[in-house]
Write a structure and sequence with these properties.
By secondary structure, this protein is mostly helical. It is elongated, with a radius of gyration of 13 Å. It contains 3 helices and no strands.
């Protein structure tokens, strides 16, 4: 998600990757569960103040994108 040399949050990145897999395999229910996990983890990171505001903003944009994808989700079968 981030460019070369930027510090990533491994736990957030793992959830993001799982959501991508869920959406690509049409697993909307799993994607919704993982989006909720991502939202709560982002909220925790913002409250503990460890992560930079710029990085939090990037993760929040990714979260919003996933939420939009799920809203527009259409089953292909």
């Amino acid at each position: 998600m981030f460019g070369f040399g930027k510090k990533k949050d491994r736990e957030l990145e793992e959830i993001i990757n799982q959501i991508k897999v869920d959406l690509s395999n049409n697993y909307k229910d799993n994607a919704v569960i993982n989006i909720q996990k991502l939202r709560s983890l982002i909220d925790m990171r913002s409250m503990d103040g460890v992560m930079k505001d710029k990085d939090l903003l990037e993760y929040k944009k990714v979260l919003e994108s996933f939420e939009e994808d799920v809203r527009n989700f259409k089953r292909t079968y």
